[in-house]
Task: inverse folding
């Protein structure tokens, strides 16, 4: 079988982007093949590095590492492609000079996209938001499951996907419940009627928190007497949980337990009341009514 080397050479030297009007820039078939091979090899190397680094990590740490590693991947790919093209004789200076006007136009058209990308890089570098973090933005609480250069995706407590453009993390206030550690302190507030045994109330509230599934035993739950309100003595039971994402369910279950325990111990939860005093025109008799709001 005879190999036509001339045809192979013609194929490899075929100019996909011919030189001439591009400031000397040209792009041949063999340059494209070389760039593809370099990307494939780089991908395999990066996968190997990732596998070696994450093999002993816990699942939560792996997700956080992948968020940062994505940015590293993009940076490595850009460097590899530029290095391969430059070493193959591609005059990148000519390409950049010829495309300067195009880049300026694209910059104005895609400035919001660039803001998101720059913000995404910043997020990945300073690790302000990582995969598996529980965050709150604009009264929406969710768990981060993907951080990209343009946007961050979270799943809310309603099991809905919220896509947040990354530049909002630079301009809006964001609560990160789990950045320092997975534990968060939560509370349930309750008022009891004046005349109630405050020490009994404190014991009941604390025991309800201790018995509630999902509440950590350490640090131990505690109760505070918060205020003398208009119609109630206000208490708060404070506790720590490991997963802030499921906090509403734990609070609901704790309120059920508190209501049941108060009934068993004859502790009354007051409700707002209003006294109306009506004076008739025909006599000085005063009619006193008590109505509930």
Result:
């Amino acid at each position: 079988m005879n190999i036509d080397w001339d045809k192979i050479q013609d194929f490899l030297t075929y100019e996909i982007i011919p030189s001439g009007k591009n400031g000397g820039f040209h792009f041949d078939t063999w340059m494209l093949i070389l760039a593809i091979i370099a990307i494939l090899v780089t991908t395999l190397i990066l996968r190997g590095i990732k596998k070696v680094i994450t093999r002993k990590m816990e699942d939560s740490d792996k997700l956080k590492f992948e968020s940062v590693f994505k940015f590293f991947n993009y940076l490595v790919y850009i460097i590899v492609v530029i290095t391969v093209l430059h070493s193959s004789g591609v005059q990148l200076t000519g390409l950049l000079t010829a495309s300067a006007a195009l880049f300026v136009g694209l910059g104005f058209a895609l400035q919001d996209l660039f803001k998101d990308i720059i913000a995404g890089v910043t997020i990945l570098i300073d690790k302000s938001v990582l995969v598996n973090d529980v965050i709150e933005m604009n009264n929406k609480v969710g768990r981060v499951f993907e951080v990209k250069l343009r946007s961050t995706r979270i799943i809310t407590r309603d099991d809905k996907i919220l896509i947040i453009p990354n530049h909002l993390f630079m301009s809006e206030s964001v609560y990160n419940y789990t950045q320092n550690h997975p534990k968060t302190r939560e509370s349930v507030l309750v008022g009891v009627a004046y005349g109630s045994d405050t020490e009994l109330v404190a014991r009941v509230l604390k025991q309800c928190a201790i018995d509630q599934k999902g509440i950590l035993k350490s640090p131990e739950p505690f109760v505070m007497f918060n205020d003398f309100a208009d119609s109630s003595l206000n208490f708060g039971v404070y506790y720590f949980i490991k997963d802030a994402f499921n906090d509403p369910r734990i609070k609901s279950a704790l309120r059920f337990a508190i209501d049941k325990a108060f009934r068993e111990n004859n502790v009354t939860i007051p409700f707002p009341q209003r006294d109306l005093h009506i004076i008739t025109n025909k006599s000085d008799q005063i009619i006193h009514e008590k109505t509930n709001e």
